[in-house]
Amino acid sequence: MEAEPQKKNGLTLAEYYKDLFPKLLEYSSVDRVITEHNVFQTPNYKIRELVNGMCREVLLPGSGIKNFANAEAFLQQLKEGKKGLILMEHYSNFDLPILIYMLSSTCGETGRELSERIVAIAGMKLNEDNPYIAAFAEAYARIVIYPSRSLAAVADPEEHKKEEQRSRLINIASMRAFERVRQEGNAVLVFPSGTRYRPGHPETKRGVREIDSYIKLSDVVMPVSINGNCLRIPESKHEMTEDVVFHDRLIMTAGNICSAAALREEAKQWAAQAEPDQTDRKQITVDYVMHILENMHTENEKGRLDGLEETPGTAG
């Protein structure tokens, strides 16, 4: 039997996976409205199997995880009872799915074990805005938060007051879940930027100061950079289902693990030279994290596309 021809680049998520979208809804059982009672959401493995296939289809040869020995050392720290935090770059809604897919399918038993111990911090938008995206996110263990950016966007004073109370309840419950899952030997994954990076919008690569709280409550941290992007955000986009699918060689790199306390101390020393006028300690820590990730990204972009034919689908 001949292999099915590869679909072309440039289709929206909804167009590219139109045959799978009905199954996402069929398999979905998530409670889309977030309250303080359902912030921790367990993975739906029927949906994960579908999403694994989606990832497999768009990854070009040579995709994989670099410096996996760092991830192995991180897993060992978890097994020894350390509270672990993964700090990862964020370019698309495929970032977490591809990480979990590559860990579980290309990194042996150790990779599979680590993939099952990852719990992601996710904003409410993934659950509440679109039923297909909610089902997509349901494939993974996650703790749902009410992001400060979402609250700031509520303009009506009465609505803002109501949402402020809701956000407080949700985020208190989220921090409790954050502690509980790590006591159970899991790692929490967070995107320090709090949003996906959009080219031409440098503010989307600025770290969110609240991330410092997660770092402060951790023992060890591991940065992860991402080079390549299989699901891109168009300038005119309105819905996440309108993100555009591209085949790409995607490299995720596990950085050196370090103690959270040491990271925060290094951030102070770095800021004395890099941003001497910055006095917000929380922002300094997160700015330093973004600096580390940017350096990793730049280094790991070198040679990423070597050996690939140039196509519209390969870009950094």
UniProtKB/TrEMBL annotation:
Q: What SUPFAM superfamilies does the database record attribute to this sequence?
A: Glycerol-3-phosphate (1)-acyltransferase (SSF69593)
Extract the GO molecular function terms from the UniProt entry. Answer: acyltransferase activity
Which of UniProt's keywords are assigned here?
Answer: Acyltransferase, Transferase
Q: Pfam families recorded for this chain?
A: Acyltransferase (PF01553)
Answer whether the UniProt record assigns the keyword Acyltransferase to this protein.
yes
Residue spans making up a coiled coil are none
Q: What is the lineage of its organism?
A: Bacteria, Pseudomonadati, Spirochaetota, Spirochaetia, Spirochaetales
Query: Which protein is depicted?
Result: 1-acyl-sn-glycerol-3-phosphate acyltransferase
UniProt domain Phospholipid/glycerol acyltransferase: residue ranges: 84-229
Q: Which organism is it from?
A: Candidatus Avitreponema avistercoris
The UniProt transmembrane annotation reads: none
